[in-house]
Amino acid sequence: MFAKVITAGVFGVKGFKVETETDSSTGFPSFNMVGALSKEVKEARFRVSTALKNSGYSIRPKKYTVNLSPAGINKEGTGYDLSIAVAVLISDGVLKNEITDIIKNYAFIGELGLDGEVKPVRGVLPMSVELSENGVSGIITSFENAAEASLSGMSEVIGVRTLRELMSLLKSRDAFFGFTRTKKPDFKPEAGNEPDFSEVKGQEYIKRAMEIAASGGHNILLTGPAGTGKTMLASRLPGILPRLTPEEDLKISEIYSICGLLPHDRPLLGKRPFRAPHHSVTPTALTGGGVCARPGELSLASKGVLFLDELPLFPQATIELLRQPLESKKITVTRLKGVFEYPADFLFVAAMNPCPCGFYPDRAKCRCTEAKIRTYQASISKPLMERIDICARTRIPDFEELGRKSGGERSEKIRERVEETRERQLYRIKKYFPEEACAVSSNSRLTGRMTEDFCRLGSREEEFIRDIFRKKGLSARLYHKVLRLSRTIADMEGSEAIAMRHIAEACALRNGDDSLWHPEISERKES
User: Fold this and answer.
1) CA–CA separation, 105 vs 373, rounded Å?
2) 407 and 465 together in one domain
C-alpha cells in the first residue's frame, strides 16, 4: 500500500518541502530508504521501527520502501523520523481513511527516540515558514518546537511529546480536532540586557565615533594601546543600534534555529546579535559551509555586530574572506552538495593594538622595532582597510576620568538619536528611490547613484574635499566612503546640506589609518 506524508528539510538558510513516500508490499522483509540521504537520515529506519514497537505497534514483516522527494536535494538531520513513522502507519492501514484525508496537507517534523519520545530538531522555523508559503495547512512537531513553528503564521500547529500521544491524536476525527493547538506567542525584543555605554568612563571621542557608526551602519576599526577599553566599547554597540523590527527578528531567528542556538525559553532571538569569534576561528566556521553546510559567524552576526578583537592575530587568509561580504552583505559558499547563499548583513567592528606589545607610539614603554610593527600590521591589507569607514584611536584615560561615579549618557538615550537619524535616511531613500528602499537601509549602503544625489556639495565644500583627495591620495572607494560618512554626520544634526565641518569630521575619523600605515611618521612626531 502506498502512502505520502509531507515534511520539510533545510538547504542553506531556507527550508524546502519534502514528501515522504512509503510503499509496503509482500516480499523479503526489508526497510529500504532512498532519496539522497545522509547517514543520520538512513539510520531513521532503526529509530522508527524501534519507536513504533515501544509505542505499541510492531512493523509487519513486509518490504518497505521509503523515498524522500525531491530525490535530487541532499537530506540531512533527524527531523524526518516522524513523517516516516506516520507514512508507515498509513501504508500498513493502521490509520483510518478519514484521518488520512485530513492530515494529507499537514507536515510532520520531529526526531524519534527509541522509547517513542518526539524530540526537538534544528531549523523548524525556516521549515515552517517555507511550508506556510507553499500552502500547507498545519504542522505536527515536538512539543518543544511547537511555539517556534507557530511563528510562521500557521494556525494549525500541534505539539506532541511521544509517538503514543500522536497515535491517540490520529485515531479519530474527534480526537484530532479536539487536541489543543499551539498559539503564536507574543514575544517582544529583549531590552535592558546589553552592557550600557554609561559604564564607559572617558573616551568621549570614541563614543562619538561609535554613535556615528551606528547611525549610518558604518564599519569601524578601533586602534590604541592595550587596556584602553576597545573591547568594552565594541560590546556596547548593539545597545545603541535601532530596535529590531519583527521581520528582522524572524530572519535572524531562522538562522539561529538552523544552528540550534535559539534561547531555550523563547523561539525568537529577541535582540541584535553580537558575535566575537576568537582569532583561531577557521575560514569555514567564519563563512559557513562544512560537512553539514551550516551558516558561519558572518551569518550569525547578520542584523547585528561582528567583532574581531586583536585583528592582526587572525590569519591573513581568514581576514581577506571579509572583502566580498563587507561589500555585498552576503556570502556564497560553493560545495559538492550545492551552492549556498548565506546572509552577511552585519556592522563590522575590529580592534587592534598598534604593535605586538600594545604600547606604540609611547617609546618610553614600547620596545618593538619598526620592522616588527610592520610585520604585525602586514596581515591587514589596504583593500580590507578601505572597506572600513571609521578608523578611530583610543587613548589611556586620565585618573580623574576613571574616578568619576558616572560615565555619561545611557545607551537608551544614544539609541533614540540613532533611530531618529536612521528614520531621516529611510525617509530620503523611500522618497527618491522607493524601488530600492528594501535593499538600502542606511547611508553606508548607498549606491553610486544615491551617493551622487544625496551627497551633493557646495563649491567651497567641493574644493575642500578635492584638496583632501589629492593630498591623501584617496581611492575612489575611500572618496565615496568619506561622502557617505559626511552625509551621516549631517543627518545626525538634521542638516540637509553637507557642510565643511561634516567633511572635516569624516576625514578626521579616517586619520587613525595614517598612523597604522606610516609608523615612522608617528615615531618622528613622538621624538
Assistant:
1) 65
2) yes
Tell me: pLDDT of 510 over 90.
no
In a shared domain, residues 151 and 226: no
Of 177, 206, 222, the residue at which a domain comes to its end is 177
DSSP per residue, 170-218: TS-HHHHHTSPPPPPP------S-SPPGGG--S-HHHHHHHHHHHHHT-
More confident residue, 364 or 213: 213
How would you classify residue 222: left for phi > 0, otherwise alpha for psi between -120 and 50, otherwise beta? beta
| Partner residues linked to 390 by β-bridges | 220
Q: Write down the pLDDT at residue 523.
A: 42
pLDDT over threshold 60, residue 527:
no
How many domains does the structure of the chain reveal?
2
Query: Is there a single domain that holds both residue 153 and residue 259?
Result: no
Q: Which of 203, 216, 304 is nearest to 492 (CA)?
A: 216
If you average pLDDT over residues 309-330, what whole number do you get? 93
3 state SS for 340-357: EEEECCCEEEEEECCCCC
Is 33 in the same domain as 96?
Answer: yes
What range defines the domain where residue 156 resides? 2-177
CATH number at residue 400: 3.40.50.300
% the chain with pLDDT above 70: 95
Rounded Cα–Cα distance for residues 488 and 492 (Å): 6
Question: For 483, what's the count of Cα atoms within 13 Å in the CB-facing half-sphere?
Answer: 26
